[in-house]
Amino acid sequence: MLRVCGAARFPRSLSKVIVMIIATRVLTLRLAQEKIEIPIRIFAPEPQEIDWLCRVEIDWPDGKVARGAVGVDAIHSLELALRMVGAQIYASDHHESGRLEWLKPGKGYGFPVPNNIRDVLVGDDKRYL
Question: Are 113 and 86 in contact (CB under 8 A)?
């Protein structure tokens, strides 16, 4: 039921629509002498011809990743988008390095993930999500 759209695959009609950011979170990547902020943006779900699209962006140090999750209604697309962000974070080299954090090191990032990767959760994510 999850369909993911790459940045270049959004329907043409979206290029003229102003889309509102409804939520943001900033993760931190700890390097030797600096901390790099990694902003995450969740956009308001948008109606498509049949389904709904919820876009997300993650500004990784090596470039922005923009994706979209399509669901049967606005809430479904939002839920899938949040799980997609969680999966992207937990699958990242930055998470694997152990230097990525949200509130405190090792506490998790506060995003749900698809059920098939729940075994990779850490900290509070593992306990509560």
Answer: yes
